[in-house]
Amino acid sequence: MTMEFARRYRSRSHIPAEPGKPYFIEKGMGDRAHLFTDLVTVYAGGEQTENAFNFFTVEGPKGDIIPAHLHSDTYEVFYITDGAVRLFVEDLEGEQYEKVLTTGDFGFVPKNCPHAYRIERHHSRVVGVAAGPGGTFERFFENLGAPTEELGLPREPYVPEPHKFGTVPQQYDVRFLPDHQWRTES
């Protein structure tokens, strides 16, 4: 049996709102949201960790590159548990890196470094952890995307309303870089 908690942005959650409470969540039962073709599941966030870090998964089909973006106050890690993901990163000196990460591989993105990724194989899953002095960004996914109770990928891609791109990212330390060019892109 797991407990459920109400949230201002969802009627049910398995994640307690206040820090300092141990809890357990069964596979896939975190706070879920659909964004584009992916399912994002949050297991721990700023509310539980006093803004120290978050922990989430992103799973999706083989698809398009996620738009280039950066986090000015947040470090992000990518750990691949299933499939393959191509990670693109540009360091602070402008050098670009591209690496296909497969099951068991790890990628680190420092704050202020433009990055993007593309799922290379169907049924791929990334475990993400983000931390930084400015807080955490896990609620970005459900505020830009669509909260869902479904356990699977969206039946149809969820594309946010254009006005959301102008407001939601800034609230969660996400800055999209629409003109960014990846010189390494395959």
Task: Describe the 3D structure.
A hairpin with a 2-residue loop joins strand 3 (31-35) and strand 4 (38-44). The chain has 186 residues and is mainly beta. The mean pLDDT is 91. Helices cover 10% and strands 39% of the residues. The protein has a 7-stranded antiparallel β-sheet with strand order 10-7-12-5-4-3-13. A 3-stranded antiparallel β-sheet has the order 9-8-11, with no helix packed on it. It is built from 3 helices and 14 strands.
Poorly predicted tracts of residues: none
pLDDT averaged over residues: 91
N-C termini distance: 46 Å
- What order do the strands of the largest sheet run in, or round the barrel if closed? 10-7-12-5-4-3-13
Estimated share of beta-strand residues: 35-45%
State the helix count: 3
- Quantity of strands, as a count: 14
User: Which assembly state applies to the chains in this document?
Assistant: single chain
- Shape, please? globular
Protein name: Quercetin 2,3-dioxygenase
Organism: Streptomyces flavidovirens
InterPro entries: Cupin_2, QDO-like, RmlC-like_jellyroll, RmlC_Cupin_sf
In short:
This protein has helices spanning 46-49, 140-144, 162-171; strands at 5-7, 10-13, 31-35, 38-44, 54-60, 69-70, 75-82, 84-90, 96-102, 106-109, 115-119, 124-131, 146-148, 175-176. With 186 residues, it is mainly beta.
